[in-house]
Amino acid sequence: MILVFCIVLGLVQWGYVEAACDVVTKKQWDGLKPLHVEYLPRPVNIVIIEHTATPGCSTDAGCEELVRNIQNNQMEQLNFWDIGMSFLVGGNGKVYEGSGWLRVGAHTYGYNRRSIGISFIGNYNTDEPTADQLEAVRKLIQCGVDKGHLTSDYHLLAHRQLISTESPGRKLYREIRTWPHYLENATSIMNNS
């Protein structure tokens, strides 16, 4: 009986990990369960900002539909275990759970087992990130530090600093370069492979 209680308590607490950071959970956006799970050793010290390079969204229904479509594409076409990003943020200012704080994502080849990937929904070569999106990501990162998922001295990087991509788009890249913890020279954390 005690074992059952401990298991139930653990599952309840695990479910609140994302909710504690004001994140729309996978259950709430009607996401699929992952096919396989690999747990992320925490705390991590790298936060990677990227964009989806899809149309943007500004309503709850529109953002949830886009997140589901991204997950379906990544799992069915790319054979990912789950949606690749740790978190996604819509133009409505809401953060959506991807692989989350606890599980290894598939967002930046070579860095997935030691970072969190936060993807802005939209194409930020052409779109400007909204004030609500920017504030939501700042709060998410601070919550990650407060909850012990991120180190207090984490490094913030643009996706393009680590792999050959335009992500997170010129306009979002220009913005995050002004944020605390932004690491201009990524050489010290880059893979040598």
TrEMBL record:
Entry's Gene Ontology molecular function annotations: N-acetylmuramoyl-L-alanine amidase activity; peptidoglycan binding; zinc ion binding
Record key words, sorted: Disulfide bond, Immunity, Innate immunity, Signal
Biological process according to GO: innate immune response; peptidoglycan catabolic process
UniProt xrefs under InterPro entries: Amidase/PGRP_sf, Amidase_domain, Peptidoglycan_recognition, PGRP, PGRP_domain_met/bac
Annotated S-S bridges: C21-C143, C57-C63
Extent of the signal sequence: 1-19
Domain named Peptidoglycan recognition protein family: residues: 21-163
Record-linked Pfam families: Amidase_2 (PF01510)
Domain N-acetylmuramoyl-L-alanine amidase: 32-169
SMART domains listed in its UniProt record: Ami_2, PGRP
Family to which the UniProt record says this protein belongs: Belongs to the N-acetylmuramoyl-L-alanine amidase 2 family.
Name of the protein this chain belongs to: Peptidoglycan-recognition protein
Species this protein is from: Bicyclus anynana
Taxonomic lineage from the root: Eukaryota, Metazoa, Ecdysozoa, Arthropoda, Hexapoda
